[in-house]
Amino acid sequence: MARVSPADVVNVPPPVEPGGDGRSGGGAARRAGITGIVVACASIVMLFAALTSAMIVRRGLGGDWQSLGVPGILWLNTAVLLASSVMIERARRALRLGRRESFNYLWLAGTALGLLFLAGQYASWRQLAAAGIYLATNPSSSFFYLFTVAHALHLGGGLLALLYIAVCAWRLRLGPGRRTAVDVAALYWHFMDGLWIYLLLLFRFWG
Amino acid sequence: MSSPVTHHAVHAAPKGFLRRYIFSTDHKVIGKQYYLLALFSVFVGMLLSVLMRYHMIYPDAKVSWFEKLWPTGAAGGIMTPELYLSLMTMHGTIMVFFVLTTAPQSGFGNYFLPLQIGAEDMAFPVINMLSFWTTFAALVVLLAAFFVPGGAPLSGWTAYPPLSAVGEIAGPGQGTGQTLWILSIALFCAASLMGAINFIATTIDLRAKGMTLMRMPLTCWAWFVTAILSLLGFAVLLAAGILLLLDRTAGTSFFLPAGLVVNDQILNHKGGSPLLWQHLFWFFGHPEVYIAILPGMGLTSTVLSVFARKPIFGYRAMVYAILAIGFLGFLVWGHHMFVSGMNPYTGIAFSVLTMAIGVPSAIKTFNWIGTLWGARIRFTTPMLFALGFVSLFVTGGISGIFLGQPALDLYLHDTYFVVGHFHMIMGVAAIFGIFAGTYYWFPKMYGRMMNETLGKIHFYLTFIGVYAIFTPMHFVGVAGNPRRYPNFKEFEFLGELLPVHTFMTHAAFFTAAAQLIFLFNFFWSMKKGAKAPVNPWEATTLEWTVPSPPPHDNFGGRLPEVYRGAYEYSVPGAEKDYLMQNEPAVAVKE
To answer: Which one-letter DSSP state was computed for residue B2?
Structure first.
């Protein structure tokens, strides 16, 4: 770089605008984690949007759509999942206030309720099978199983994250670097909850 | 000037062969792994196309080793139509996914995005590693289709149902082969989604101080928008693939209508729609072709600027054009389905939107020309390939405008005009983008220069060769030559066109052979090329401020600080004819 005297300076480029992050420490990693999970959720939205459009098209064809409706147990499962989300959110806020013990119990409760939701979903599939309704029985049942299994698989992945954090928390290994993981996992969990509400409404009104 | 403050975790260089070269989380290693995967794939894909072109002009030829490789598909040494179609399917699948979607984005993007924005690595290095190995697994699963009973599928890279959905009863390749194809694509979707998340988070959150979005090189903008297209598009392909798999294995009827009789067997499916697959597939399929071309456009902008020693003409317009192409790319999928029986008004809508994409594309083309205008051009090999990109983009793109008119497409659909169009734009222009990137960035990646003479020979032979192969396709297409036909000799009206096909086949052999020059140059230069300096091309972007090849953490612990845009060439009054992005306030004498 050339050193120049003030007398030579005629045109100076404009001052540096705030750039990428420019901050030090965990700032960039944290923001990248949040961006990452938001972007991942956008992609999952597209997956379910494609399946929804397939359902809408199929529903309009042929006139052989036999409404399946919403199996009763699903309402109970929904309540369980909502409760789980509430627990996870309360846990997250407790952590921010530094209340580690509250965090441990609330997060564990949220995780357990999540597991209960999955068990309830499995029960709903067994119920349907007992009534002779399987994946290929009719178009409506095909989409029901498709959506609920796809949701359960994604939720299962989130549950693994919740479990991992729960284990870290109880082993007292939840340092500052893992706080982002807590926020990211919670965001994903709430998204799964929202997605489930959407699916429930979809079955209720168009199933 | 560089900031003494380092970013999040400073990761030490890994030790041990496995961690350094196989399961590495270093974006540079992963980028090279993707590139080498694409290099392997392109030669497999080229071999398949050479076999196809040979068969087109000698359909009755007896080739003994055909029979050895394919006892059923080439009994007696003669390639059956089914074998031809399976080679065609695998050629398309390998080229589109494992070459054009990997090399420009996952290959070069992974290697150079962090360097160009001043970051130590991608946002999620472990996910990056997983995305490569998932892609690798996808390739293995796909190639396995050649070796299963029945062989590789023959439904095309587009895998339309009912053929792709009915299973084994449809004939060779449609059993296990098709299932493996779907599984391979599903794995590829997962890998692409992981990669897309990485690219987007890295671009948004890991830019160095001073690297505003509007100072990013156009390569970074292209990788960013391409990642968004991948994110939204591959999710839809994954959905379609799941539905197809369920139709094949679980007795559902998403795509299969009632009343299908296949090989004298009545099928038990009902109520599904093959058109549904087309909509889902092309909703992905059109953004996919922009995924294939956008990184090449970004690189061409940079390479033209570097070797014309002029700033890119209209940087801001170029950024908006990339965004417009990306956005509009999601709205035009119906132009692949003009003859599917859609409402003509829907056709008009898709047609208008398709032509609308011509506007930002033309803006980019004019801006490239504007960049070259009045320049003292340095005709290096990367520059030649970038110029070739512009030429081929125009040639290939313009035939797209023809196809975007429903009235014309009614005639041209499923003819060789379409084959000529997409090969020109993807099989050539996008490939030239990859070549330009290779010659341009090889010094940085491997610390050595590629041989310029061999590079120029490779360019001229390839440039002439590809025009010779693909231009006549437009003419035979207009003459009515259908695509995906294994044997033209059965049809009188195609007999007259056989000499043209013979010409194209010989051009294909010639061009394929010319690529061996590149292959030799690539691997020979890795070991024996002249040692590369830090900045052999006198370019301004950040990757040219670090050693060739860069150290493990890219910037040696001191992240750069950026003061200017990426295209400051021939700045009036400056000492040199270029200013690096990390050079602070300059004195400018009037």
So the answer is: B
